[in-house]
Amino acid sequence: MTRLYYTDPSRLTFDALVQRCDPAPASHPGAFAVWLSESAFYPTTGGQPFDTGRLGDAKVVDVFEDDAGEVVHVVDRPLEPGAQVGGAVDAARRLDHRQQHSGQHVLSAAFVRTANVATVSFHLGSTVSTIDLAREVTPAEIAAAEDAANAVILEHRPVTIRFVSAQEAAALPLRKEPKRGGELRIIDIEGWDVSACGGTHVTHTGEIGLIAVRGWERFKGGTRLEFVCGGRTLTAFRELRDTVTAASRLLSVLPHELSPAISRVQEEARDLRRAQRDLQAELAGFRAAALAASAEVVGGQRVVLASVPGADGNALKALAVAIVTQPGLVAVLVSDVRPAIAVVARSSDVAVDASALFRTLAGRFGGKGGGRPDLAQGGGLDAPADAILDAARAAIVGA
Questions:
Q1: How far apart are CA 92 and CA 83, in angstroms?
Q2: Which residues of the chain have pLDDT under 50?
Q3: How far apart are alpha carbons 356 and 307 in whole angstroms?
């Protein structure tokens, strides 16, 4: 099969003969796999996703290489073997992929030239692309490489394709060692980068548009860097602009004042959380005293059995722990929602096993949880609070 994109990545239409049509792999139920005499559709390979488009009236939903290295087109309806079919590649998707892949070559070469750091892998994503660099790089090094890459783009340098033998390739200043032998397809960005690559590329660097680094992180001893090119750069800028504008309005500050404003809000939030915890602890003390005063005698034990409206697991636990700071008490507290949360606690001088009591409740009403003999808790008890408390009372009596 002739791969038309190898020699002309800008080609979007072609005519070909259908050589074979079979049911598609299980990952595409109801679809069909088609082999052609020639194709301009790029299959997923080398970090670049597949092209989409149409073959006649059929929609192309995936393109990949089979075990024999042939290009397989996954379509939504069968095509007749031996028939001629017209192919049309989705122009916007192809241009986007050409911009991102060529941008990667320019950017990776920029890191070699400005920071002497190699790219070890590349992934072309649906919204952002990534390169993994061989070592950690500094923000200054990233900015320098970004500047160098965009300077090359503005120079509108030609990007050419040629095919060479392994011997000829050995004499070329390739940026990285080829992964395969035999005849190699070479992408040459004039005076900047020479790489063996099977992907689709632009014809001049100016077609890439602006390259922008969106972010980076440490990854496997190196740096994983996110970048965008061309139309994606405009999309990313608009998202950032809208986010910054909205945040500035919410905080009533100018964009350059956002960072200190966010720091102030975070500090104020921390202060509020500390104050809230202190108030909750104080309130829990008052409520615990009131509940302890209302304890009933169950099976010879003083027991607090209560449903606490609006309380979550943390609030129930804090309240139960506050109650059993007093001697001679068992506390069984339940939320007022269904499924319910329950906490069982006991004073240090009481022999009731809180964990065993909770397991009894969970065994009857479902739910999960556990704990220690002095404190146990869990959720998912599918019963009204009163029913859970009655069951706890009966279990203590029977203990």
A1: 28
A2: none
A3: 20
Fold classification of 279-398 is Diaminopimelate Epimerase; Chain A, domain 1 (3.10.310)
261-308 confidence digits (pLDDT tens):
999 999 999 999 999 888 877 887 888 889 889 899 988 889 999 999
Residue pair 112/118 in contact (Cβ under 8 Å)? The answer is yes
Every domain of the chain and the residues it spans: 2-89, 95-238, 279-398
- The pLDDT value recorded for residue 399 is 62
Q: What is the pLDDT of residue 46?
A: 82
CATH node for 2-89: 2.40.30.130
Which run of H or of E encompasses 74? strand 71-75
| Number of neighbours of residue 81 by Cβ within 10 angstroms | 13
- Token pair of 387 as six digits: 């029913």
DSSP per-residue letters across 108-142: HHHHHHHH---EEEEEE-SS-EEEEESS---HHHH
Three-state DSSP class for 335? strand
Classify the C-alpha dihedral 302-303-309-310 as positive or negative: positive
The DSSP code sequence of 199-231 is S---SBGGGG--EEEEEEEEETTEEEEEEEETH
- What homologous superfamily is domain 95-238 in, according to CATH? Threonyl-trna Synthetase; Chain A, domain 2 (3.30.980.10)
In this structure, how many other beta carbons lie within 10 angstroms of the beta carbon of residue 121?
14
Both tokens assigned to 372? 């220690």
